[in-house]
Structure formats: structure tokens, C-alpha cells
Amino acid sequence: MASKKRYSFDEIEWARAKLKLPSYASFEQIKTRYREAAKEAHPDKKSGGAEEFSEEMGEINTAWAILKNYTDNFKYTFDSEAVKRYNPAAFEGGGHDRNDTEG
């Protein structure tokens, strides 16, 4: 179950910047960037300075937790204007057969 903690914009923005994400990102992009950042900063992968990398890894994990919480609690809109804005092709006729469970 998603946490109900609400993070401030500044916290969300810090987390976005920490993972070097653009202003618009899909959940898959967030997850991929988290994994890349974690791999780069993991203390077991670095020689020397383990404490520094451990601190960096902690920040990366915190950023992930903030963004994961934000996406888990995000409210999606399915109104026609929002769909049209992000998927104009949805209004170009034809469409998907609602009885087709394969696609």
C-alpha cells in the first residue's frame, strides 16, 4: 500500500535533480535512472572512499523513495482533454477494438 506522506515540491525537485531526470519523465525512465545511479555509486563497486559512496548511495535511495512515493500517489486523469493532449492519435478515428484483450 502506498505511503500517504506528502513531500514538498522542493523535496521532489531535489530528488529529480539527484537522479538527473528531465522535468517530464515516465515511471520507467525514473526507475532506469535510479538503477543507473545506484550502480554508479554503489560502495561495493568502488575502491577507496567507501564512506563517501555509501553517503551518495543513501542520497540516491532517498531520492528514489521520494519519487516512488510521488508516483504511487499520483492521480491520473482520463478526461478527453488530457488524453488528447498526450495522445492526439486517440482521436484520429479507427481506434482499438475494446473487445480485443491482446493489445
SSE layout and pairing:
Elements: H1 9-18, H2 27-41, H3 50-73, H4 80-86
Helix pairs in contact: 1-3, 2-3
Structural features:
elongated, 4 helices, Helix Hairpins, mainly alpha, 103 residues
Kindly report the name of the CATH homologous superfamily: DnaJ domain
What's the β-strand tally? 0
CATH class: Mainly Alpha
Number of structurally distinct domains: 1
What gyration radius follows from the Cα positions, in whole Å?
19 Å
CATH topology: Helix Hairpins
Terminal CA distance:
28 Å
Strand content bin = under 5%
Q: How would a textbook summarize the main sheet?
A: none
Provide the residue-averaged pLDDT: 84
Please identify, by name, the CATH architecture. Answer: Orthogonal Bundle
Strand and helix order: HHHH
Structural class call reads: mainly alpha
| Alpha plus pi helix count | 4
Which spans of ≥5 residues are poorly predicted at pLDDT below 50? none
